[in-house]
# Entry
Amino acid sequence: MPTKNGGSIIEHWKYHNDTILWGESASMTGDGSWKILENLKLVDDHGIYFYVSKVHGQNNNTAVWFKITSHSEKGFVAEKPDHDFPKRITYELVNKDSIHAFIDGGPSLPDKKSDFYYSRHKN
# Structure
């Protein structure tokens, strides 16, 4: 589970319908509760795919649409070159229970990067 300022971060995803997968990113607060950081969607818009991120307190609380520019059975890359940061979001399947996700500044700022390593939580 990734951390933010020493605390844990989770992502939770569920199917909404045949064209939308909904997700949330949350961090654990000091009292052990979870605070939603970001609302997420993976959207199939007639064969054009998007990763949609609405980060609370950023971008006037509006969603930013990143176009998925490449994908495979092991992951995807979503890009929005005109966005300030990130310009690129990547999810890579490490194994059946782990994902490496990262955000970066795209080709113009490849060294500006944040990594997130997620492990499946089994109930």
User: Anything to note?
Assistant: Strands lie at 3-4, 7-15, 20-28, 34-45, 48-55, 64-72, 75-79, 88-95, 98-105, 109-119.
